[in-house]
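Quick question, first post here. What does this chain look like in 3D?
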Amino acid sequence: MKELDIESWNRKEHFNFFKQFTDAYFSVTIDVEVTKLYVYSKQNNISFFVLYLHACMKAINSIENLRYRIRDDKVIVHDVIHASATILRANKTFGFSFIHFDDDFKIFNENFETEKERILNSANLFPTQNTDDCIYCSAMPWLNFLGHKEPLFGVVKESVPKLAFGKFINKEGKLMMPVAISVNHALVDGYHVGLFVDKFQKHLSDF
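> Answer (accepted):
Ran it through. Tokens below.
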């Protein structure tokens, strides 16, 4: 990771303005098409969740602003962003994971399975690694939501993006899944979220 030179950053004024906010997050909810990915997951007996999470992480890592994090009054640029996803247990509680990203799906899937095994065999809420070089994300396959609000811990200058994935439904022959994304406006604008959505959809379609 490295520190961003804020003084030469073209978003310097935006950063200095929005970092003063108690809650600088803005959120949008969009639909992505998952038809081919879902069929592939069933045909090959591969977790649908892990397939779309990997596509999501590829999109996240391709956009520099989504790799920015605020520490004190500095902006840190991480080389790689990982996934801190909630994983459900049989008793319907969940644990937070820390799934190390790899561009190779096979390796990413192995990392997921390791974290899943740890969570299913413990009552721990938190993972062994709890750093900000990640996104927070949850799957809610019971709900086809139109909007979503993430809880905020109240951490000063919190900056980790938060995502939620909902229940897909059939719309005119296409399986459409709602995705909510919340980002800190001091670091990310609507333009960058738009880039993420486009790249996420491309990875979902061209996996």
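Residues 105-120 form the longest helix (16 residues).
The CA atoms of residues 99 and 111 lie 6 Å apart.
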